[in-house]
């Protein structure tokens, strides 16, 4: 009962805050636009744990942001929020009613904080506004993206999507120099992977005379670390339609086999024993600074940047991308994700009196001028022009690579990824590595039958039933040896009694409606 009261009060606070925000906003931006000066567009964005953004004393004074004002003739102002605090800060923002002109919605309109605000009428329906002010958004962004539940609800568009670089965007990175030094072939099956990881643990491939290697690493709550769960087709954030029900992977019987494997890997120190607490910074430092890690998971769009920046480390790191470990069914890989990039969809609060300014600004990102700026950066700093031909400057330091992320990825609010620009990739240092990585990404991966599903209502009011709650707690105890493997069966039973059966029913109803199953 106490939880219900809290939810109700939050909703009332949210509604009141939004109404107050609507009443208090003036028309200064309209006046500016009418007198010929650029309209102002205020954005809130995640810093995505990118070092260049995190280290900026004032992102709005940054030279790339200044160029972003100049090119589309829009006075864009950006507020950044750390990725780890993003959900919490958005909730506080919604409650206050002090909202920007557009918000980067991580996981789209299905994320808990955005979904709650949407249900309270916080955002514009965009169908007619797009047709009137920015029709290029619909003609240049495919219908598949607009139909995603991260973007639309009940046929109404509430967000502007960015195209995902590739739906399966997490693949294996492994130290090639370590494999070569130890005379090892690239592994394929789970057992072959375990043998390679044991060699990394025991044979001092980093050559410092200490047994300090970390064979495989992930981040907190197994982020960037689900690949061995994928070998059993139970990536915990996914769902499977079995026996006429859509059920979360983390309660399926196969999960017990996956937990047994991870318990073994933890006991043998084949997996970083700090996997339940590693921050993004910890993860990066162990791979790059101390150079103790043999295998990790990262984006299929990143190997060119990674190879370039790792080459200039002391000593340099050499890696390759390889297919994920295959399990009992001969398949493997991470979950195949949405065609919508979950890191960047854009919603427009109704407190914004001129949503057309945001729509026109975002439409510009689909132009040739935008793609040139986002891909190549600033003339003189990042590239030179000679006889009409662009020469892109090679990256010589890690700071160069971090700076490149600014224009290549962070400022790409919507539109296609640079990896699909063949001319750009052909002339890019290590660009061929991305093509090889994409071949791996498109040839593997596990289907998520709950892809793009809105969060079931019961999970909204009982977040402990999500995989980051009770399951993560149970998994941690089993993997670290504090509980027996059989405690998983008790967890499943308790999870269902605490509301899990209702979650399954809600998810199944959505699935059948979505697939036209009666």
TrEMBL record:
Pfam families associated with the record: SBP_bac_1
Signal peptide start-end: 1-20
Protein's UniProt keywords contain RNA-binding: no
Keyword Signal listed: yes
InterPro entries linked to this entry: Bact_solute-bd_prot1, SBP
Highest rank taxon of the organism: Bacteria
Keywords assigned: Cell membrane, Lipoprotein, Membrane, Palmitate, Signal
Annotated protein name in UniProt: Lipoprotein LipO
Organism: Paenibacillus konkukensis
């Amino acid at each position: 009962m106490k939880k219900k009261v809290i939810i109700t009060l939050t909703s009332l606070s949210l509604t009141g805050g939004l109404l107050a925000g609507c009443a208090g906003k003036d028309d200064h931006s309209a006046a500016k636009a009418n007198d010929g000066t650029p309209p102002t567009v205020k954005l809130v964005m995640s810093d995505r744990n990118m070092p260049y953004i995190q280290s900026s004393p004032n992102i709005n004074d940054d030279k790339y942001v200044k160029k972003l004002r100049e090119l589309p003739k829009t006075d864009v102002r950006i507020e950044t929020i750390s990725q780890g605090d993003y959900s919490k800060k958005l909730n506080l923002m919604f409650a206050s009613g002090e909202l920007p002109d557009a918000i980067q919605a991580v996981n789209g309109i299905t994320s808990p904080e955005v979904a709650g605000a949407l249900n309270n009428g916080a955002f514009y329906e965009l169908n007619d506004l797009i047709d009137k002010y920015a029709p290029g958004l619909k003609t240049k962004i495919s219908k598949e993206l607009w139909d995603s539940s991260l973007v639309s609800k009940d046929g109404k568009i509430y967000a502007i999507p960015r195209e995902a670089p590739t739906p399966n965007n997490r693949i294996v990175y492994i130290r090639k120099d370590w494999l070569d030094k130890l005379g090892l072939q690239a592994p394929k099956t789970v057992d072959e992977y375990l043998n390679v990881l044991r060699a990394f643990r025991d044979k001092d491939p980093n050559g410092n005379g200490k047994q300090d290697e970390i064979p495989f690493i992930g981040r907190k709550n197994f982020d960037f670390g689900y690949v061995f769960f994928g070998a059993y087709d139970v990536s915990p954030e996914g769902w499977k339609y079995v026996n006429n029900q859509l059920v979360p992977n983390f309660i399926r019987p196969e999960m017990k086999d996956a937990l047994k494997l991870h318990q073994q890997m933890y006991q043998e120190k084949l997996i970083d024993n700090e996997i339940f607490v590693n921050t993004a910074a910890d993860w990066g430092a162990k791979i790059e600074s101390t150079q103790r890690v043999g295998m990790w998971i990262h984006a299929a769009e990143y190997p060119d940047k990674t190879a370039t920046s790792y080459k200039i480390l002391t000593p340099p790191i050499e890696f390759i991308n390889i297919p994920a470990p295959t399990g009992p069914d001969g398949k493997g890989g991470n979950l195949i994700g949405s065609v919508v990039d979950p890191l960047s969809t854009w919603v427009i609060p109704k407190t914004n009196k001129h949503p057309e300014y945001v729509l026109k600004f975002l439409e510009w990102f689909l132009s040739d001028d935008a793609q040139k700026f986002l891909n190549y950066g600033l003339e003189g700093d990042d590239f030179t022009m000679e006889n009409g031909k662009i020469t892109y400057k090679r990256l010589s330091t890690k700071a160069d690579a971090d700076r490149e992320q600014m224009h290549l990825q962070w400022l790409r609010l919507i539109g296609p990824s640079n990896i699909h620009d063949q001319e750009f990739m052909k002339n890019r240092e290590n660009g061929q590595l991305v093509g090889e990585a994409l071949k791996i990404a498109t040839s593997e991966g596990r289907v998520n039958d709950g892809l793009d599903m809105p969060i079931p209502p019961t999970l909204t009011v009982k977040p402990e039933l999500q995989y980051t709650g009770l399951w993560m707690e149970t998994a941690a105890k089993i993997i670290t040896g504090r509980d027996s493997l059989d405690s998983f069966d008790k967890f499943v039973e308790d999870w269902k009694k605490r509301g899990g059966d209702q979650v399954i029913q809600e998810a199944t109803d959505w699935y059948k409606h979505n697939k036209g199953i009666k």
